[in-house]
Specification:
Blueprint (H helix, E strand, L loop, with lengths): L13 H17 L8 H13 L1 H26 L42 H4 L2 H5 L8 E3 L10 H7 L3 E7 L5 E7 L3 H14 L1 E2 L10 E7 L2 E8 L2 E7 L9 H10 L4
Antiparallel strand pairs: 1-2, 2-3, 3-7, 4-5, 5-6, 6-7
Helix pairs in contact: 1-2, 1-3, 2-3
């Protein structure tokens, strides 16, 4: 807040007193304490001070003190009081977090896989072996149009990473098909059980248990199944009417298969 220092002289003239009082009034009005004094009020105070010079000093002093005091009160009243309310800090206690463990993973047993048979048809049964077959051997050649029938055992063997081959008698058009797979060891027992339930055991294909053979004939088509050293051999033909007829084929193929 600005302060105004006024030196009061007893011998001051009326015009000088009037100027001093006007200055005080202007300062008070500028700081917003009181409204500017009216000229009539200033005239009265000045006239009184001129008549009573001893009283002039007291009048000016009183005016100054009054204006200054009023300014101080107004300044105090206009200054907003800063109230500091106690801050209420809420301290949240940390709750112990829940530990989320991964769900247990069920241990799965790996599915056994078959061993692929990579032999070609000429390796499974060579041309010389086919030519040497008793009977119509010289007339038998590969069947280029052969494909395993849907849902047949030969189709199952191909799906089991095996090989399927077809031959045909060039004279009679009789067809012969053989397929070989090497299933997983856990599947062999189930395959043997199916063969036993649908066919007759044939001991002439080899010596059990190294060679287990089964034969059946349905609708004019003979079917032979042989299990040996992990291999599964299936043969079908309209020329296989008796269990002994596919025996030369089985003997040659077992000799051509790689040792397990």
């Amino acid at each position: 807040m600005p302060f105004v220092t006024i030196r009061m002289q007893v011998g001051a003239s009326q015009s000088h007193l009037s100027a001093r009082l006007a200055k005080v009034a202007r300062v008070a009005a500028r700081i917003g304490v009181v409204a500017p004094l009216a000229p009539r009020s200033l005239t009265k105070v000045t006239a009184l001070a001129a008549t009573h010079r001893p009283l002039a000093s007291r009048l000016i002093a009183a005016a100054v003190l009054g204006l200054v005091g009023t300014a101080l009160l107004a300044a105090c009243a206009s200054t907003p009081e800063t109230t500091h309310s106690p801050s209420s800090s809420t301290t949240s206690k940390a709750k112990p977090g829940k530990t989320h463990s991964d769900p247990p993973v069920a241990s799965s047993t790996p599915t056994p896989k078959p061993t692929p048979v990579t032999l070609s048809c000429d390796q499974l049964m060579t041309r010389d072996q086919v030519y040497a077959l008793p009977g119509a051997g010289p007339n038998i050649g590969t069947d280029p149009a052969y494909a395993p029938e849907k849902d047949s055992l030969a189709a199952t063997i191909v799906a089991d990473a095996g090989v399927a081959c077809g031959w045909m008698n060039q004279t009679s058009n009789d067809k012969i098909a053989f397929a070989v797979a090497r299933p997983a060891a856990s599947e062999l027992d189930a395959l043997k059980d199916k063969a036993i339930s649908s066919s007759d055991a044939v001991p002439t294909y080899g010596v059990p248990p190294e060679v287990e053979g089964y034969f059946t004939a349905r609708g004019g088509v003979g079917e032979v199944q042989v299990f040996s050293h992990g291999y599964w051999i299936v043969g079908t033909s309209t020329t296989f009417l008796e269990p002994g007829e596919p025996a030369p084929w089985i003997s040659d193929m077992l000799g051509n298969l790689p040792a397990s």
